[in-house]
Amino acid sequence: MEPRDIDGDLTEILIEEEAIRDRLAELCRRIEADYAGKDLLLVGVLKGAVMVMADLARELKHPIAMDWMAVSSYGSGTQSSGVVRILKDLDTDLHGRNVLIVEDIIDSGLTLSWLLANLKSREPESVEICALLRKPDAARVDIDVKYLGFDIPNQFVVGYGLDYDEKYRNLRSVGVLAPHIYA
Ligand code: XMP
Ligand code: MG
User: Fold this and answer.
1) 5 a catalytic residue
2) Residues 6+ apart with CB under 8 A from 132
3) Among residues 92, 137, 151, which one has the least CA distance to residue 119?
4) What digits encode the pLDDT tens for the residues 37-51?
5) Model confidence at 74, in pLDDT bands (50, 70, 90)?
6) Closest ligand by atom to 139 CA
7) Of all atoms in ligand 1, which is nearest to the CA of residue 113?
8) Which residue intervals define the domain Phosphoribosyltransferase in the entry (predicted)?
9) What is the ipTM of this complex?
């Protein structure tokens, strides 16, 4: 199969690369101020958060630490069930650390709500959340996101780390997948 141009598979670009970069820079200035003089551990959630983690981390002027977790929501299809399984755990002991969870997207919020409780049980000094995207209309639990990139409509989006069937993560912007791709 010939590789196609990604843009033909989208109905709409929701957030351009430049807007993501500018917004992440704003969030980084706030993070630097909030964590001045403190240690900071960024915890990225694989695989979707890879791009936001890479750009956020490099924009930060502090020497931060990074670690990764992979989780999977039980249940089928595109619906999160809230029952989460750890596929890859952290290498880092969180005891006494300032943790900032870095996520691609908050949809129902169930995954992050579970993750938050899980990490808090490891007795860190603090845990906060940074998420690039949030779908307010899909929320099933209330999540306190300290650093949020953008609120978006309740549509399935891809790009900038987000995938459909493991593809489109490499798209530089965030876009809405065309319905003919699902069919
Ligand atoms: P919940 O519902 O638990 O889900 O907040 C969060 C996880 O579900 C994935 N997700 C998406 N992935 N486009 C994607 O490519 C989307 O629009 C989307 N919505 C949710 C994602 O892995 C997220 O961490
Ligand atoms: Mg994710």
Assistant:
1) no
2) 20, 24, 49, 52, 103, 104, 105, 149, 150, 160, 161, 174
3) 92
4) 999 999 999 999 999
5) low
6) 1
7) 3
8) 18-164
9) 0.93
Ligand 1 contact, 175 CB (< 6 A):
no
Q: Which residue has the tokens 């908050």?
A: 106
Whole-angstrom distance, CA of residue 54 vs CA of residue 56: 6
Question: Does the pLDDT value for residue 83 go beyond 60?
Answer: yes
Beta-bridged to residue 123, according to DSSP, are none
Q: N- to C-terminal Cα distance for the chain?
A: 18
pLDDT at 4: 65
For the chain, domain boundaries: 18-152
Residue type at position 63 = P
Q: Which CATH number fits domain 18-152: 3.30.565.10, 1.25.40.10, 3.40.50.2020, 3.40.630.30?
A: 3.40.50.2020
